[in-house]
Amino acid sequence: VQLQASGGGSVQAGRSLRLSCKASGINFRLYAVGWYRQPPGKQRDLVARMISSGNADYADSVKGRFTISRDNVRRTLNLQVNNLKPEDTGVYYCDIGQHWGRGTLVTVSS
């Protein structure tokens, strides 16, 4: 199983990014998926998750700003992150069927 995350970057507060995670070697459509965030020096916490049916839920801190989506044909997991805040800074990891990608760094400056 290989997961390749991309889309991170350094942006100013209020801007948007689109994170993606491309999966290979796994039957993507069968699994629940999620995005986690690990701020510098802190633990990794769930940001958003989606089960195979498409139902999603979010951490309170990102509700209304982040949107998780999946493309089962392209085996890709996405996270649209809008109105970014400095506290959104961290490494974002994708989880597909309890397999982890390497993460992509998002840095938000005020």
Kindly describe this structure:
- By secondary structure, this protein is mainly beta.
- The protein is 0% helix and 54% strand.
- The chain has no helices and eleven strands.
- Strands 2, 4, 5, 6, 9, 10 and 11 form a seven-stranded mixed β-sheet that branches.
- Strand 9 (90-96) and strand 10 (99-100) form a beta hairpin.
- The N and C termini lie far apart (37 Å).
- The mean pLDDT is 95.
Mean pLDDT: 95
Helix content: under 10%
> Helix count?
0
* Shape verdict: globular
Radius of gyration: 13 Å
Structural class: mainly beta
Strand content: over 45%
Summarize the structure.
The chain is mainly beta and 110 residues long.
Features:
globular; single chain; 7-stranded mixed β-sheet; 110 residues; 4-stranded antiparallel β-sheet; mainly beta
